[in-house]
Amino acid sequence: MAVKIELQKLGLHFIVVELGEVDVMEEITPEQRANLRASLAISGLELMDDKKAIIIEKIKTAIIELVHYSDEINKVSFSSILSQKLNLDYTYLSNLFSQVQGTTIEQFIILHKIERIKELIMYDELNISEIAWKMNYSSVAHLSNQFKKMTGLTPSHFRLLKDKRRSPIEDI
What we know:
Blueprint: H1 2-9, E1 14-18, E2 21-24, H2 30-42, H3 51-69, H4 78-86, H5 90-101, H6 105-123, H7 128-134, H8 140-151, H9 155-160
Antiparallel strand pairs: 1-2
């Protein structure tokens, strides 16, 4: 809503305003761009012009949607999904992500999967086997090994903790 309001204030007509993306009908002047950047900053939002930064944000958004907000079990690899979603070669996406972020897409996915697993453990609605299946792990052992490697705890031990700390998505 904030983006739509700011675009309207500047007299810009938009076709689409979605999470992280705006399609404007007219060419934006440098002055309009500067005004939009300033007004979005007041709302805590950022205008991104750099094509590489935009691709990185699209990769992150796609991963977050798949890991945290999708209830579908993906039998297709993340690399295939990202390539298809962004219409770019995965090797290019992977190299760009590593270059800009200093970590791999795979590591980014693992960090988010671990946070999602923590969340599912805290809800206490699913057992570890069900969580492994839901998160598309090949086995409970694979989930447990990865979880322990990343957190220092087994999923079972994490479940027993009273102070179950999770990291906010934006801090991962």
